[in-house]
Amino acid sequence: MALQRCTKHLFNNVRVCTSLIQSMKMCSGGSTSVNPKPDADTPIFPGVQSQWAESLELIHPHSYNKFPVYRVMDRNGCILNPSEEPQLESEFVERMYRTMILLNTMDTVLYESQRQGRISFYMTTFGEEATLIGSAAALAYNDLVYAQYRETGVLLWRGFSVDQFVSQCFGNCEDEGKGRQMPVHYGSKNHHFVTISSPLTTQLPQAVGSAYAYKLANNGRCVIAYFGEGAASEGDAHAAFNFAATLNCPVIFFCRNNGYAISTPTHEQYRGDGIAGHGPGYGITTVRVDGNDTLAVYQVTKASREYAVKENRPVLIEAMTYRLGHHSTSDDSSAYRSLAEVKEWGSLDSPISRLRQYLALKGWWDDAKERSWKEETRKMVVNSLTRAEKVLKPDWKEMFHDVYYDMPAQLS
Amino acid sequence: MVSPVLRLCMRYRVTGLSSGTGQKSPALFHKFITKRYVEFNFSPEKPCEGKGETSRMNLCQAINSALHTTLVNDPTAVVFGEDVAFGGVFRCTLDLQKRFGKDRVFNSPLCEQGIVGFGIGCAVAGTTAVAEVQFADYIFPAFDQLVNEAAKYRYRSGNQFDCGKLTVRAAWGAVGHGSLYHSQSPESFFAHAAGLKIVIPRGPIKAKGLLLACIQDKDPCIFFEPKVLYRAAVEDVPVKEYTLPLGKADVLVEGDAVTLIGWGTEVHILKEVADMAKEQLKVQCEVIDLVTINPWDVETVCNSVKKTGRVIVAHEAPLTGGFASEITAVIQEECFLHLEAPVQRVTGFDTPFPHVFEPFYLPDKWRCFDAVKKTLTY
Ligand SMILES: Cc1ncc(C[n+]2csc(CCOP(=O)(O)OP(=O)(O)O)c2C)c(N)n1
Ligand SMILES: [Mg+2]
User: Is the ipTM reported for this complex over the cut 0.85?
Assistant: First the structure.
């Protein structure tokens, strides 16, 4: 009996299928030509739009062209193609440069302060200044930022003060995060910078969700999610790419490819054409840029932002750079890379000196300015540190607040 | 001294106090809050008898020795995880790749669900897989692979397939400045998934024997390593291969007044508490290291409780749903008529693990000692 019912059901379904095909045939005069016959000119599987192949070929990764690395300046700060030079005001470029120096000074002083045992932990952004400042400068101030942890420069560009950074590192009572997180886990609602969390790549699908919300709100804002090339290996990265593409979200995926994930070099992290190589596979518009070229990073981020907001589509940017510092204060990178390698990158391809040379060629910067700004920033950071150290810790009762909106009975 | 300050804080009710930046702790607390270490005294084991030649090893080196032994004696064994090739961020896999080659000791891409899923697959195909998850806090992307896959492999296939050759190692517990994501003790999440064994050593000798036992065990094991002990704990560890039993608790100090139960770092705190109780209260506490969180040694625990009638279970993980709750429930079932006082749980609070407040958060010797006094005067 049951079997009979089953078979009948099956037949019914088949009939439904046939009628579906008939109706599709009727539509074939429309814009998409649908032809179910196996010898038709194009395959019509629902899962792909492609062509037929009558000879067997395994497609190898090397049969694709690799993404080129877009740049605007050479290593000496000379513009390579004048039509690609962003026409930026001298004050604007100078501000970018000053922020890079300030970032560098803050990193140096806070790194030292950890070494002296004054703060518990620190992560520098040495070598990635152009990547951070170039991208931050191209965004709208209220575009939402989801960071990984090595994006201090983005928040600095937005005006988070040195005192605010230093207070977070000390976890004193002026820290917006109320002393709950390790140093460098910054966050500021006022600066549209979502508080950093240590578990990697969790911010990526979240950024896509925020972008979707912005799209529905039709508010002209977009979202940028920063992540390392190591973090791109997490499952969350793939979830994020796929959601952004299928749900048409105005989000910029900004990968900082700095060559290492702690000790793991890129050739043990991925095969294929880097992180940019993922883009086409997910149907995401993609660009690769020289991350040590501030102007190039600015250009690609600006273009990506315009595209994302106008088209409501995601963009993937892969910025190629090099992590000059140790992974963090818990790491000694000489255990897995040579000092010579680091030195070579530092001297051959410094993003800071490249932008300085550009400024100098324009006549917008000189040695005297350089000296006085470096001195000024050092004083600024050292004074901030001395002050923050004396500021008291948050009230210990803060430990119990904000777990929930209202404190549950079991905590009070 | 720290204790009166802390006790004062803990008695202070939190309700009704305003929240918000700018609220300061009293200056008196400043020094205490700025302390950045976990306070405990490691108490080493007596050298093992009959296990041959020993060598001074810290916890890292004992783990390295267990992995080394496995790679020598089991030709199928592989060791992998994030940054494992250069020795791991805690240096537990130091020199293993040099000695055993890149096919057997290797870096994985940065992906915990991949690490555990890959490890299960290796085990299913007959290879001994020792996977490292860099921090226990980062095991959650692999939660599905562990809870829905590893734990249920044998059961769902009617014992046709299993992944008993899988062992997952992860650095675990507080260090004093790790905050939310470098401090957690997630053992009770996994204790809820029948099919997994969860083991936590208290020092180097136990670590080597237990890790080897996990690797050779017929079920998938999670081996949580108290990372504050990696360097701080040094003992004379037997050089050759040996295993220690899983599912067996250790009675470390015998006593008749109060049973103190813990695992990992907490065991050393409880031993100190037993000393304090002896000195200041003139009573003998019994200290038990549970060793295996699941399946756990109900017999040893209940025998002790029947003798003492008073129990304290301490762990760093939060109170609600922590493994102390499970132990407490079984004790009241099995030893109800022997109890002289309610079982007390001394644990982390039901909050995330907070950075500058770590000294307040942890169940240190003062909080445990307070509990001893409370239970004795109940
Ligand atoms: C889920 C998770 N797994 C592991 C870690 C430990 N961890 C912290 S940073 C890091 C490397 C990240 O490398 P990458 O994404 O390339 O960023 P970079 O440090 O180079 O900026 C690892 C493995 C973590 N924080 N979260
Ligand atoms: Mg990296």
Answer: yes
